[in-house]
Amino acid sequence: MTLEILTPETKLYSGEVHGVQLPGIEGSFEILEKHAPLVAALGKGKIKVLKTKSEIFSYTIQSGFAEVLDNKTTVLVEGAAE
């Protein structure tokens, strides 16, 4: 699956991943390979990027949106930090 994490200023991440965990406004959720199309609002919390099943890193965000379409997840965030 392809993942892009974007802020108004920069592209934080772009590449292939195993999956991503996102802080939805009503609770956390995970996107994996071939997920159904989705648009979701994100709340304050951590985005966990699952580069492989054992390599994980994260970003702390204030808010944002995520779109899943055609095995690509695009995350637009405000106030991100590693």
UniProtKB/TrEMBL annotation:
Keyword presence, Transport: yes
Pfam families assigned: ATP-synt_DE_N (PF02823)
UniProt KW keywords: ATP synthesis, CF(1), Ion transport, Membrane, Transport
Keyword Secreted belongs to the record: no
Location in the cell: Endomembrane system
GO molecular-function term, one example from the UniProt record: proton-transporting ATP synthase activity, rotational mechanism
Every ATP synthase F1 complex delta/epsilon subunit N-terminal domain range: 1-80
Membrane-protein topology: Peripheral membrane protein
GO cellular component: endomembrane system; proton-transporting ATP synthase complex
Stored InterPro entries: ATP_synth_F1_dsu/esu, ATP_synth_F1_dsu/esu_N, ATPsynth_dsu/esu_N
PANTHER family reported for this sequence: ATP SYNTHASE DELTA/EPSILON CHAIN, ATP SYNTHASE EPSILON CHAIN, CHLOROPLASTIC
Quaternary context: F-type ATPases have 2 components, CF(1) - the catalytic core - and CF(0) - the membrane proton channel. CF(1) has five subunits: alpha(3), beta(3), gamma(1), delta(1), epsilon(1). CF(0) has three main subunits: a, b and c.
Chain's role: Produces ATP from ADP in the presence of a proton gradient across the membrane.
Family membership noted in the UniProt record: Belongs to the ATPase epsilon chain family.
Name listed for the protein in its UniProt record: ATP synthase F1 subcomplex epsilon subunit
Lineage, top ranks: Bacteria, Pseudomonadati, Bacteroidota, Chitinophagia, Chitinophagales
